Structures are given as C-alpha cells and as structure tokens.
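We modelled the chain as a single entity of 154 amino acids. Its sequence is:
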Amino acid sequence: MSLASARQLWANASPEKRWAARTILEGLGLVVALVYACIVTYPLRAAPAPAILPTKPERLGIPEPKRRAIFAELAGDEPRARKESAEKFPGDAWSIEDERAAHERDRARDLASTRKVSVSDVYLILDEGIREHWLAPNQKPLDATVVPLKPRFR
C-alpha cells in the first residue's frame, strides 16, 4: 500500500473507524514504550542487593586494633619529641610545637611505610584517637590544644 492510497483510505474512513484506528495505534505505541522501558531499566532491576553493612565498619579499611596500635606508636613518641623540641627552642612555645610537629610528621611517614598504610591514614588515625580520647602509652589522652602562631625569625 502506497502512502497516497493510505491517505485516501484515511480520508474516506468514517469517524468511528478513525477513532478505532487511533486507539489501536496509541495502544501499540504504549506497549512499545513499556517494552522499551523494561529493557532499559532491566540492569537496575536485575542488580544484586547491596551487601549488608557491618554494624561497626572498619574505618579506613583498617581494623580497630591495628588503628589503636598505630596511634599508640605515634602517641608514644610524643613525650620524647616534646622534650627534644623544648631543648632545641627553650622558652619559645610556638617553635617547640613546630619542631614537635616536624617529629610527628617524620614518625607518621615511618609508620606509614612500616605498617603499609598511607600517611593520610596515619594522620586520620591520630585524629580519631584524639577525638575518641584513646590513651597514649603513658595512659593519658593526647593534648588537643594548639599553640598560637608566632613564626620564628632568624
């Protein structure tokens, strides 16, 4: 059937036949749209359910005992670092703290290397230990205060 003959057939059809043809075509269109929607959304509907989250997730993918051990090693070095820094910069609180932080940075790098974690993870573990008031080897939580900034001039 050519397009011209289809137009003529449509023009000569009664209103009831036109309505029936439109209804059938709209119904077919709706079926095609639903089938397409089912095909497109299949991957979403067929995806497996997500795994059940543990009640106490391992932060950073590191078990808590290992995080506590890393914290203890880093915190255990702090008294020595404070003492050495105070000897190097007597009476200058900001310089003492700056030097202590440099010791902490070096120790964090060493721990990251020996424990096979990133330096960022070591600092995040230190932060967690301070926030959660984990005890350092001297059985006291770390001091979370910061000395006001006063740069050194040489």
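As a brief sanity check on the tokenised model: The chain has six helices and no strands. The helical segments are 3-12, 15-46, 64-76, 78-88, 93-115, 119-131.
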